[in-house]
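Hello again, I could really use a second opinion on something today. My current little project is about how a certain protein chain folds up. You're getting the sequence in one-letter code plus the fold written as tokens. Here's the protein in full, and shout if anything looks odd to you:
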Amino acid sequence: MVSGTGPAELLGEYRARGAAEAADVERARGLLGSGVDAWDRGTPLHFTASALIVHPESGRVLLRWHVRQQAWLHVGGHGDPGETEALAVALREGLEETGLTDLAPWPDAALVHVAVVPVPASTREPAHEHADLRFLLATATPEAVRPENPQSPLEWLTVAQARERTTEANFRETIDRAGRLLGA
């Protein structure tokens, strides 16, 4: 487990950048005192943890095709039962979705972005929202990447290419923040 990366600790010190993110952070903080399991995917709004994977040496970022969202996005998802440490969830999801075994927080373990995002209904669950806690994870072995299934390809792109590839404005903001740190 990665200690100190639960939502309360992460959001307690986090400072939003801009009005849209400030509203999302306040909604996420509202989950903490709501009396419900903030990671329970059966609730209309719940936490998820994700990461944009970067290769600092080349300045590239890794995008993953998400079938349900029909968009090129980052890796991440729901906590498994009992998981409450956001960074641990992002690391597990990153490994599962890319096969990269050397993922590590980069340049540190701080949140890089908080976004409340809509998720369309599926045959298994109604439409809902994710309070997504986003990190940056780095790999030194980009050539080792392997998609978890053929429907979810992965692509290494420059920051500019990644911005063009995604259709999600909130994810473009995550890419921009990574780009500034990468010097792109």
